[in-house]
Design goal:
heterodimer, A: 344 residues, Rossmann fold, 2 domains, 6-stranded mixed sheet, 19 strands, 25% helix, B: 297 residues, mainly alpha
Amino acid sequence: MDTKPFVVLQDVAKRWNGQLGVEEISLDIDEGSFVALLGPSGCGKSTTLRLLAGLEIPDEGQILIEGRDVTTSAASARNLSMVFQSYALFPHLSVAENVIFGLKVRGVPRAERREKMARALEITGLGGLEHRKPSELSGGQRQRVALARAIVAGQRLCLMDEPLSNLDAKLRNSVRKDIKKLQRDLGITVVYVTHDQTEAMSLADKIVLMREGRIQQIGSPDDLYNRPANTFVAEFVGAPPMALIEPGIVEDLSPGRTLGIRAENVEIAKKGKGRLSCIVSEAEFLGNETLIGLEHKGVRGLTVMKPGLSLVPVGERVEVTFNNQDLHVFDEVGRRVSEQLTEK
Amino acid sequence: MNKRVNLERRRQAIYGWLLLSPAAVMLSIFAFYPSAATFWSSLFSRGTRRRPSEFIALENYSDLFADPTFWVVLKNNLLYAAVTIPVSIVIALAMALWANSKIPARGFVRTAYFTPTVLPMIAAANLWLFFYTPGLGVLDQIGGLFGLPSINWLGQPQTALWAVIIVTIWKEAGFFMIFYLAALQTIPEDLKEASDIEGASRWTYTRRIVLPLLMPTTLFIMVNATINSVKLIDHLFILTKGGPSDASKLILYYIWEMAFAFFDAPHAAAMTILVLGVLCIVAAVQLFFIDRRTHYQ
């Protein structure tokens, strides 16, 4: 019984007028884990979250929370909280009233309410802002009010729908750390929707990568980065993403297979010593390193990382080399093949 | 340098006045001047061929206060306002909430509710005249099916004012509903979802979230309904002409009668000034006191 996962989605599907929503979503979530639903926009990650929240009812499949079938239960009966992309704060209520709205609705006594609110505001660093209206807060503060509202009731499952997408880059980093710390300190289970793979990689214990309503891969950040299940995952995860080499471009290592290679495994070689001869298409200085984009027929997204500032003029021809053991191999439909290539 | 700043400031001031002037001119010609002129003429006596009009200060006003009809009309109008304002607001809100929810034939429902607003008041009054007519009217016909006696709704003092009130509510509610519908569209869907997740019932959501967010609209509608309760008298001309025995006479109708049936312009002017004063006070109360407790997005 103990080994049963906290949240289970089983073959869940949701369609709108025959159009694809999500299909065959099967997912186990352990208690206390941080799960990120990742994917490009329109991939069904928000739909999956809304199905879990009870804001949509699935056409097929089953949803279990704490072993209880909640497939058709109302949102309020699922014992979860949610942070919305737009924060969904009640604009006419003060910070304090927003935070304790749910407690009030559920009939929690006044003294307990006050105590819980004080704690939630302290955790989220909102002390002293109790009487402000949401319109008098900055974006980051509003975001924290939404967080405080989500944690005040002490629900063990918290859903977050792109909570950082309305913040500027700098704030996003600091709030990201706050969210992670919060999740760890409170020991709550978080399901987090994002389209930003860095966010997912840095936050999640488990990433669910989706595309066109279907799950592409479920795994740890390490799995997704180092063992992508298919070419879509390979190209979605990582900055810069993995380069894909069509069959027959590199001397026939593995006929009919597409090869993948990450930028950090590619090196610039001396003239005549490289395995591919490419043309520099762009050079991007990032401070601690320089990304050099390369063009070659039949190769997508090939990039070399060089430490520090080392710009190469665009249009120059360079040769690159890599080790066979760093290559990822995909079959003709893009699925990963676990065969190892021999050392060159 | 200083000169240029001054010049610029003057240019800005002229620009501001130019933007302001069309409205100022129109309001002055059609609102401020007539009001002032009305006040001025309310201070003079009614001139006849033998006795020319002369300045009598507030005598017209004291005449009014001594006139029993004035008090009857005032009482009628207060009852008319006290019933039509809240009832039409509540009905408008209920209709809007219903027409905004996910119901079949939503477009039809909205159109149906809005139809009375599109009709001219005179046409609506004629329609209702047909409903109320004793014997022939729809109400009597339906009542007849259940064996109820024929009632002359517009012809007896106990029911005449109420019959007029119902027509007004029927006319106004659909109009106010449109404002509520528009305001409901501006409430984001995710507030409902957030309150769902917090476990709020539909009623709690409506009471704690929707109604407060509709307050600016309610305020606007209240001001409008108040003004309408004085302004809207077209149907009286068709339905009752203020009768029987002044039972359904409203203040503006009485002013009209005073001025154009009894040709007593000074008393009509005095009454107009009183109405204007009361409306100003009511509008000020609504805008300053309720406004302060209203949340604007």
